[in-house]
Design a protein that fits this description.
With 266 residues, the protein is mainly alpha-helical. Helix content is 67%, strand content 0%. The structure holds zinc ion. Zinc ion binds next to loops.
Length: 266
């Protein structure tokens, strides 16, 4: 943990919430194939432009009590929720890694992860416009000398992208040929390539294992408690994202513990 002035944290959380507002635009528009830059924010129902004072993160939504100023239709609480989550995510990274290039890189990754996760939850897709540049940007960031752990070295990032993308693609292909079932979507494979590019090949086993574990637990609870239809697909992206994000903070300790308990004389 780094020591950060409370005043700076307040600024960081405001900065995070503003970016959260932009992430909302990405989450809403990318699945529709729309531009994320133009036009300005509009009501999803009546398409009237949203004034800047109604667009202030969280506050705008609260002042309007979750309804559009023009058509009075409800605005999803997901919007302020994303803004709050983005602010907390940003504050957490700054608290752990201080003000550094590594923090900037992790914030970029965290924002991309958040957008991917929410889009996958709602649309069952992990858009190529995020995952493919995500792999390239990850490799570029890994090559920068200013950026340190938990961002991978270029060597580990290249192997990570190759195993995460290529290796898992081959695995998914063989799995499908043998079982006739789609075990893992290609979007998940590209996401794993992106995770490998940012966090190195070391992150892949951890991510896959905990995503599968988390997915099974949530899936079983969901079927058991709410009678969810088993045949309906469960998006895997959110679990991959949550696991990869946990790896950033606890990955090294979990590996250490695992090898100490399973490998004699480690
Ligand atoms: Zn409206």
């Amino acid at each position: 943990m780094e020591t950060v002035e409370p005043y700076h944290l307040l600024l960081v959380s405001f900065f995070g919430a503003l970016w959260g507002s932009f992430l909302n635009v990405c989450i809403y528009r990318i699945p529709l194939g729309e531009s994320i830059v133009f036009p300005a924010s509009r009501c999803p129902h009546c398409h009237k432009n949203i004034a800047w004072y109604d667009n202030i993160p969280v506050v705008g939504w609260l002042m309007l009590r979750g309804h559009c100023r023009h058509c009075q239709k409800a605005i999803s609480p997901l919007y302020p929720l994303i803004e709050v989550v983005t602010a907390l995510l940003t504050v957490h990274i700054v608290l752990v890694f201080g003000f550094s290039w590594t923090t900037l890189a992790l914030i970029t990754l965290g924002y991309a992860f958040l957008v991917l996760m929410v889009i996958d939850l709602y649309h069952y897709i992990l858009p190529n416009v995020i995952t493919l540049p995500g792999i390239l940007i990850g490799l570029t960031v890994a090559a920068l000398p200013q950026v340190g752990p938990p961002i991978a070295t270029l060597h580990d990032a290249l192997i990570g992208a190759a195993i995460g993308g290529g290796g898992l693609w081959a695995f998914a292909w063989i799995f499908e040929k043998i079982t006739g079932k789609v075990g893992m979507g290609l979007g998940d494979v590209k996401l794993m390539g992106m995770i490998g590019a940012w966090l190195g090949w070391q992150a892949l086993a951890f991510t896959l294992f905990f995503a599968a574990l988390l997915g099974s637990i949530v899936g079983l609870c969901w079927i058991g408690l709410m009678g969810r239809d088993r045949a309906k697909p469960i998006p895997f992206g959110p679990y991959l994202v949550l696991s990869a994000w946990s790896y950033l903070f606890i990955g090294a300790q979990v590996y250490e513990w695992y090898f100490r308990t399973t490998v004699p004389g480690y």
